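Below: protein 1.
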Amino acid sequence: MERILGLDEAGRGSVVGPLVVGGFLVDRERIDRLVAAGARDSKALDPEERERIFLELPSVGECDVIVLCPREIDQYVAIGKLNELEARAFGTLVARFAPDEVHADACDADPRHFARSIARWARAGCRIVSRHHADRDDPVVGAASIVAKVRRDRAIARLRRQLGEDIGSGYPSDPRTIGFLRVRLSAEPRIPGWVRASWATMQRVMPPRPARTLDEFDS
């Protein structure tokens, strides 16, 4: 029985919260059931639909995620290797599931290069197919995208409850997120761990800091 692993991520472009890599493993003969459940690109679904399908997925296959925190993301962005961080997470899920074949949504401009990077981290001999828009075209990757998106949405909801404020979606395109960051960061002595300090957005929202005098450097 051939087992297919779909891989995708959610939250790559967010300035707040984690990047979540999702995996969904299914027997090839059950893919029709996956389609019937409505599995497809999570971006094409509203939150209620995503939650409904997410709750049905365990009856069809197996789910797992890897959560990458902002500080780890910042470390890899600093050396220009965010794609490698994602490939490592994808490869880790491949190693966990040991599938016969992998279908991955490529975050790299070169899908074949991304597949080779996944294989290095997976250290497995299975076939890895990586391509752009796989979440849109492949229901197994669509299921993985739902897993990643729902788990990230839940992480953002937890952060919202912890902070007691409307943080929006966490993306730079969301005016609520930008407004929240401008107010919140003005009251913080340092950048909190739930913010991606390496994002260019931070230059736009960080409040100006007073210049330090020579006397302050000497003290």
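Below: protein 2.
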Amino acid sequence: MAKLPTEYEVTCPCCHATLVVDAGLRRVVRHVAPERADKPSLDEAHRILADEKARRESLFEASVQSERTRGDALSKRFEEALKQARDEPITKPSRDFDLD
């Protein structure tokens, strides 16, 4: 792209990106991101995808297992609450409304 006489390049001190600023417009007209050092190569793509697939599968299995045991835990808590309710004596609650 041809550079106009009113455009100049500036390097960002934070991210080291190249910014092209137009002095006439007083705006950034183009931004070029710097090359990342940790950018994976194309040769490692298969390994990265396999690792991510294994991670997703393990998270899914953990989710399925927690859902399977969730019903058991809820029914156990319900049985305990029901037993506690049966053991408590039945009393009539006293409210200010009932005293009139």
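Strands lie at 7-11, 18-22, 27-32.
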